[in-house]
Amino acid sequence: MAGSGDLAFDPWDPAFLADPYPAYAELRARGRVIRYEPTNQWLVPHHADVSALLRDRRLGRTYRHRFSHEDFGRSAPPPEHEPFHTLNDHGMLDLEPPDHTRIRRLVSKAFTPRTVERLKPYVRDMADELVAKLVGAGGGDLLTEVAEPLPVAVIAEMLGIPQADRGRLRPWSADICGMYELNPSRETAARAVRASLEFSDYLRELIAARRAEPGEDLVSGLIAAHDEEDRLTEQEMISTIVLLLNAGHEATVNATVNGWWALFRDPAQLAALRADHSLVPSALEELMRYDTPLQLFERWVLDDIEIDGTTIPRGAEIALLFGSANHDPAVFADPGRLDLTRAHNPHISFSAGIHYCIGAPLARIELAASMAALLRQAPTLALAAEPARKPQFMIRGLRGLDVEVR
Predict the structure, then answer these.
(1) Which of 6-10, 31-35, 129-133, 344-348 is predicted least confidently?
(2) 289 close to 262: Cβ distance less than 8 angstroms
(3) Which among 25, 115, 341, 391 is least surrounded, fewest beta carbons within 10 Å?
(4) Three-class SS state of 258
(5) What is the reported pLDDT for 183?
(6) Cα–Cα distance, 291 to 295 (Å, whole number)
(7) CB environment 95-131: b (16+ within 10 A), e (fewer)
(8) Can you list the positions of beta strands (E) in 76-144?
(9) Angle between helix 250-264 and 280-290 (nearest 10)
């Protein structure tokens, strides 16, 4: 175990946010677990440990299924944050069995391979349409013109969100996801609370409308869903829909722009991809590894664990560093090099264990559709301006990506 003194790891430093991967190399050299005082967490930087701990049932996304805040040595969230926590804590990402098992079983019926496969034509048509508009305009912001509207449209279509309301989803999502950052500010928390209230109120009205007039969409399916008397409560339904909307596009949006930014900085790899579109599947996996959209995932220690001779006590919080794990040279040869033909690529960008991303197959279809459309329709796509990074660490992305079709 190593301490956090003089670490290059600093999730609030713009230089670190621009390129955190050298700092991760330093963390891995320091040891398998590092105490980080600024966030009161234990950092885990190695691929083998991150992968194993994601599957370790002595850790949990929550502790409330076993302990009260007091029993666990934690304080309850501030009362003014309650709307966010009510929304967040009833979604399956932040639940443990048996509630997680029950909700995931119901939701997974909408993400079967057959169901996802049926979405392919819609996703491809939407990607082609968005890219055609970008090309027709001679370029624009790849984030707002292609990366963002594609996954938002797909998940909104699945859920049956009316077309006129879809523009409200991304701002709500962005404000809620701000609370997942390390030590969020008071202003960030206030925006997340407001968005949680507005999003929840909107969904209550939508659920009421679907109860009165069910459709073929996922919201109607969740209302009707049951399995041996296990039904979703209304709050679980609202939290599940928000989770599907947020997780259903946040990572895909950021994977798209992070990926193209990486390609623009590596002309040889971009040229190879343009010359051989059959590289798209392996390219997507490599781009998600190379610049990981979700850099960190947290777990509570429910029972004492030991890592490399260091006991991590019950009540502690562990920060599993996905970005570091995806650059671990013990697993990835020359991890700092972008290699679109990388054959062995066990990245953990979609997590692992019972919280493995339920929408991963759909995300891959969306990413492949937009990349294929851009390669096909915009073979001369080029960077128009140096992009700026978002000032967040955990959800890694760009403020925009201005491109031009030459």
Answers:
(1) 6-10
(2) no
(3) 391
(4) helix
(5) 85
(6) 9
(7) bbeebbebbbebbeebbeeeebeebeeebbebbbebb
(8) 139-141
(9) 100
- The count of structural domains within the chain is 1
CB neighbourhood size of 39 (10 A): 15
Q: Answer yes or no: are the C-beta atoms of 273 and 285 closer than 8 Å.
A: no
Torsion of CA 347, 350, 351, 357, to 10 degrees: -150
Structural domain of residue 36, as residue ranges?
14-405
191 has a pLDDT exceeding 70: yes
Q: Which residues contact 398 (CB under 8 A, 6 or more apart)?
A: 143, 254, 257, 258, 261, 387, 388, 389, 390
Q: Is there a domain that residue 134 lies in?
A: yes
| Residue 387 domain flag | yes
Which amino acid, 142? L
In a domain, 310, yes or no: yes
- C-alpha gyration radius of the chain: 21
Instruction: Give the model confidence (pLDDT) of 273-302 as tens digits.
Output: 999 999 999 999 999 999 999 999 999 999
Confidence of residue 5 (pLDDT cuts 50, 70, 90): low
- Alpha carbon 281 to its chain's center: 19
Average pLDDT over residues 218-230: 73
The CATH number for 155's domain is: 1.10.630.10
Helices (H) and strands (E) in the chain, counts: 17, 12
Tokens at 204, concatenated: 């209550």
User: What pLDDT is stored for residue 2 in this prediction?
Assistant: 55
Q: Are 222 and 232 in contact (CB under 8 A)?
A: yes
Collect all residues with Cβ–Cβ distance below 8 Å to 295 and sequence separation of at least 6.
20, 321, 322, 323, 393, 394, 395, 396
